[in-house]
Description:
The structure holds three protein chains of three kinds.
Chain A lengths: L1 E9 L4 H16 L2 E7 L8 E9 L11 E6 L2 H7 L3 E10 L7 H6 L1 E5 L1 H9 L5 H12 L5 H11 L5 H14 L2
Parallel strand pairs in A: 1-4, 4-5, 5-6
Antiparallel strand pairs in A: 1-3, 2-3
Helix pairs in contact in A: 1-5, 1-6, 4-5, 4-7, 5-6, 5-7
Chain B lengths: L2 E6 H12 L1 E6 L6 H10 L6 E4 L3 H13 L3 E6 L1 H17 L3 E9 L5 E5 L4 H6 L8 E3 L4 H18 L2 E7 H5 L1 E6 L43 E3 L13 H16 L2 H4 L2 E4 L6 E4 L4 H14 L4 E6 L1 E3 L3 H9 L3 E6 L5 H11 L2 E6 L2 E5 L8 E6 L8 H11 L1
Parallel strand pairs in B: 2-3, 2-4, 4-5, 5-8, 7-8, 12-13, 12-15, 15-18
Antiparallel strand pairs in B: 1-9, 5-6, 7-14, 11-13, 16-17
Helix pairs in contact in B: 1-2, 1-6, 3-4, 10-13
Chain C lengths: L23 H15 L6 E5 L7 H4 L3 E4 L5 H11 L4 E7 H7 L1 H10 L3 E7 L2 E2 L5 E2 L23 H8 L3 E6 L3 H13 L4 E6 L3 H5 L7 H10 L1 E3 H4 L4 H4 L3 E8 L6 H14 L4
Helix pairs in contact in C: 1-7, 4-5, 5-6
Amino acid sequence: MRYEMRxxxxxxxxxxxAAMIVSEAAIxxxxxxxxxxxxxxxxxxxxxTKADIIISDAPILYSEANNIDYFMSLHPKTYKMYKSDxxxxxxxxVDMNMVQVTEEDKKNFRxxxxxxxxxxxxxxGNVITANIVSLGITAKLIDAVSEEGLxxxxxxxxxxxxxxxxxxxxxxxxxxxx
Amino acid sequence: xxxxxxANGNEMVVEGAIDAGCRFFAGYPITPSSExxxxxxxxxxxxxxxxxxxxxxxxxxxxxxxxxxxxxxSMTASSGPGISLKQEGIGLACMAEIPLxxxxxxxxxxxTGLPTRIAQADVMQARWGTHGDHPVVAICPATVKECYTETxxxxxxxxxxxxxxxxxxxxxxxxxxxxxxLPDGKELKIVNRKRPSVKPExxxxxxxxxxxxxxxxxxxxxxxxxxxxxxxxxxGFPDINPVLQESEEERLINKVLRRQEKIATYENxxxxxxxxxxxxxxxxxxxxxxxxxxxxxxxxxxxxxxxITIWPFPSIALQQVAASAKHIIVTEVxxxxxxxxxxxxxxxxRAVTEIKNGNLIFDTRHPRSSADLTTVLQANGTPxxxxxxxxxxxxxx
Amino acid sequence: xxxxxxxxxxxxxxxxxxxxxxxxxxxLKAFIQAVDELGWSNNDIGMVTGIGCxxxxxxxxxxxxxxxxxxxxxxxxxxxxxSNPDKHVVVIAxxxxxxxxxxxxxxxxxxxxxxxxxxxxNNWIYGMTGGQYSPTTPTGSIAATMPYGNADPDFDLVNxxxxxxATFVARSSVAEPVMLKNxxxxxxxxxxxxxxxxxxxxxxxxxxxNRFGDPVKLVKHIKSVTVSSAKAKRMNPDExxxxxxxxILYENNEKKEYTESYFDMVKRAQAKGGx
Lengths: 178, 397, 275
C-alpha cells in the first residue's frame, strides 16, 4: 500500500498542521510508514502553502508526493499551482466557496466541493477549526488511516482547552461527506 | 534503549548535537535553518549550556569559536547568505585549529535566492569558501535519521581533528518529517578533543611532537597559550619562516587527507553488477535510489554510489565502482558542481592521498574509467524527481 | 610598590612590534598596572584582540590570549566569557577595529552589558594598513584615503557606547597614564560592559600627515584637545567646542549584567522541568 496526499492553501489556514496530523495518525495509530513535507514561502500569512504526505507499508525513499491520490485545496491559487501531480481518477476536495473546479477536472477526478471554511465558521463556531473540519472530511474519504486513528492524532495535537471544539469540528467535517 | 521519534531534519540535527555533547550554540535567524537555533534555544538552557542569538552571522561563528576555546563543544547553523557571511570565521577555525560544527541548511541561491526551497549549490563553497588553502570536512546526510547520526559524527571529527566540520542538509530534508529510530545512547561513539597531559610550562598549542593533531587546552585551565589567525609556530605566535610554514600548511591539509579512508564514508546501492552508476548525495540520493529500484524492475542494471562525506570525497571507492561501469550519471540539485570533481576522479583516475613538499601524492592504482558521463541537474527550487533520473537511465541503457 | 612586569609579560616575545614612541605601550602598561593592583591571577584573565597594531597586545601578555580576525574580538570574547562566566575577559581594540568593521558587535556588547572590559586604543587612524581614515579620524585631517582632508564626520565613542547601553564608560589618554590606569582598574572591577576610550598617538600614520610627526608634539596635541570632566563642568558649550572630555563619564550599577541574566534564565528553564 502506498497512498500519496497533498494539502494546500495559504499560510494561516492550518493546512500544514492538518497534513502533519495525518502523517502522525499513520505512524502512531496505523503502524505505517509515513512522511510529511511542508513547503511554504516567506509570506507568513497568505502565502501559498502545500504539504505532502506519503503513507506506505514499505519504507519511503523519495518523499515528495508526485503521484497523488488525495488532494485538498482551500485556495484557488494553490489549487492551480499544486494540482498537477494528481493521478487520473484521484480524489480532490476543495472549499466550494473559494475554488472553482472546471468541468474538465470534474471528469478527470473524483471532486468533492464542500463548504469547509463556512462550516467551521458557522456550524462549529470558530473559523480556525477549518483544518480540523478538513481532517473530518479526509477521515471519511480515505482508507490509508482510520477514522479513530485520525481523531486520536488530532487529540494529541490540540491543547486540552480546545479538545471539545476540535472533536466537534472533526465530526461535523465527517458529516459533510455524504 | 532505542528511541523512536517523529521529527524533521532540523530537529534531528538538534538532537544529534545535544547527544554529541554540544553545549554551546551561537546563531542568527535565517530560513530554513532557524528551527535549529530554536531547538538549541529550548534544549541548551535545560542542561546548563549556552545558547546565544548574536547580532549577525559573523558574530555567531566568532562567538562559537570563543565558546569552543572556552572548552565547550560548539556549533553554529545557517543557510545561504548566512554561510557566505561566516566564511572568514570558518577560516579562523581552520587556521587556529579550533573544533567547530557548522550546519548549512542549503537553500536556493545565489544571493537571497529561494529561501524556502531546496538546493545543493553550496558544496563547492563548503570546499573553497574561505580564502587561502585550508582543510575541510563536509558531510551530506540523506535522511532524517542521518541528520542525527551524521551531526554526531561531525562533532566527533571536529574534536578529533581540531578543525571545523560542515554538515550540509537542505531545505527539503530540514522540514521532512518522518519516523526515526535512534540508536541507544550507550551505543553512541562520542569523541572528545585531546587535552594536554604535560605540565603547563611544557605545553605548546601546536606541538607536533604529539602528532599531527596536537592536544588543545581549554582557556582558563592553567595552560596559558596564544591563538592567532596568522600563520604561527608551535607556540601559537606569528611566524613567517617559509620552511616551517610550508610544513604547517601541509599539515593542516594532510590531517584530513591522511584520515580520508576513515572519514570519507559512502554507500553503495545495488552496485555490484551495475552498468549504469548514479552518483548522488544528500536528500537527492533518495530519489536516485528510487530510480535505481525502478530501473532494476525494468531489467536495467543500475546502481547508486552515494558519498556521505563529500569532503574529502571518497575518491577511491568511486573509482572502484566506476571502473566497470559503462555509464555514470551525476545528479545534484544545482547546475553542476560536484560533477567536476567526479569527472576528475573517474576519468583522470587519480586520488590525492596527501601533499608532501609541494607535491600532491596520487594513488593511481585504480584504472581510469571509460564510462560516459551525463548529468541530471536542476536548480529551480524543487527536488529532482525519481522519474527524471529514471528517464536518463533509460536513455543511456 | 613597583610592579613586577615580567610576571605579566611574555618576555621572549620582546622587543615588541610597535613603532618607537607609539602610545600602545603606554596603554598596555597602564592595563598591567591595573591588573597588578587588582591582584588577579594570570590564569583567570582572557585577552582577545582583533586586527590592527593595538591588537598585537594579546601576544605580549601571559594570559589566555587570542588574536582573532578584524572586528570580531568582542564576538569571540562573548563566547569565551559565556563559556567561563567567572573569569575575566578583556578586549583591546583599535578605533577602526572596534567602531567600523566591529561596530555592530560593539553596540550589541554594550546592549547586553556583558561583563567584558573593552579598551579602545583610539589613535584616529588605521595605522597598520598605512594611515587610512577611521570613524574617529577628525574631520578635515589628512589620511591616506582622504588626501584632501577628511570629509567624514567622526564618531564620539563615549557617546556611542553610553547610548548603546554600556554601564561603565571612561575616556583618558596616553598623556595622563596614571589616570588611564585608574580608569582601567575601575573598568576591570566593574560588573558589566565597560569601555575605555584611550586616546593615543600614532605619530607615524596620522601625525606625519598632519604636522604631528613627532611623538611628543602629538601627545601634547592630544592633551590640548582633551579636558577633564571636572574642568569641563565649569566651561560653557562654546569653550568646549572641539574638545574631548576625559574622566569617568558614565557609571551604572543598576543594569543587570548579561551572564547573570543568562544563567538566571537557565535556572528558570531548569525549574520548568521537561526536556
